[in-house]
Amino acid sequence: MDQDLRDRLLAMDTMAVFEVMSHYLDRVGHQLQQARTTHSDGLGAAWIEAQLGALRDFGEQVPFENESMADATAIASRWSTAAAEVLAALPKPEADPDLLTVVVTPDEVAACSTGPVLGLLTMLLESPARARSRQGVLDLRISGYDTHPAELSEIPEVRTYIQQLGREFPYWLYFASTKSSSLQMIALCHLPPGLTKNEKRAQFPIRLHDLLMGRWIPALNEMAEFAGLAPEVLREVSDRAIGYFSTTAAV
Fold first, then answer.
1. pTM higher than 0.85, yes or no?
2. What is the residue extent of each domain of the chain?
3. How far apart are CA 39 and CA 183, in angstroms?
4. Are the C-beta atoms of residues 1 and 89 closer than 8 Å to each other?
5. Class of residue 145 by CB neighbours under 10 A (exposed 0-12, middle 13-18, buried 19+)
C-alpha cells in the first residue's frame, strides 16, 4: 500500500475523499463488468483491465509518470488499494467485526446507483489471496427502511437495485456470509412481488433453483478457479450455501 497516497487522501475533506474514491471505484466496477464479458484470460486479467480503464476515465486526477503499461498498472493498484482502505476508514454503522459490512444508502437505492457499492465489491477481486481471505464474510445491508411497513424484498426500488447489482456482481454464494440474513434477502428479491406467504413458500424453491443454476453456481465456480480453491474447499462452500437455504425460511 502506498502510505503517502493514503495519508494525502485521509487529509482531505471527508466528503471530497468519498466523492473521489467512490467515483474511482464506480468506474472500476463498471469497467470490470465489461471486461468480464470480453476478456478470455479470466478474472485476474479482467481486473487489471478494469483498473486501467477506470484510470483512463479519471484523466488529470491520475498522476501518470509515463505511458508504460507497467507504471500504469502499478498506479492502478495504488489507487484501488488506497480507495478501499480510505473508504473503510470513514465512519459507518456498527457492524459485526467478523463480517465485511457493505451499506447501501437510501439515495443509492432510489436512483438505482450501484456504482459505489459495486466498486467496493470488486475490490474483493483484487487478487486470489484477497478473494480467499474474504470468502463468506460479506454482509450487504440496505439502510433507511427500518420504519417501512413492507419487507425489503417487497419494496420495488430495493428489488430493482438488488437485481441490477446481482447482474453486475453475481458472486453472492462465494462472498456472502451464511451468518447474516443478507443472502436470504437477495434471493427473495428475485421472487415475483405481492405473493402471499403460501405462494412464497411454493415459489421460492423454484426461483432459487433457477437463480442457482443460471447465475450463482457458475459464478461460484468462476470465483473458485480465480481464487485457486481446492476441490474440498469448494465443496465446503457449496455445502454451507445449501445448508443455509435448507434451514432459512422463504418468509
1. no
2. 1-90, 92-251
3. 28
4. no
5. middle
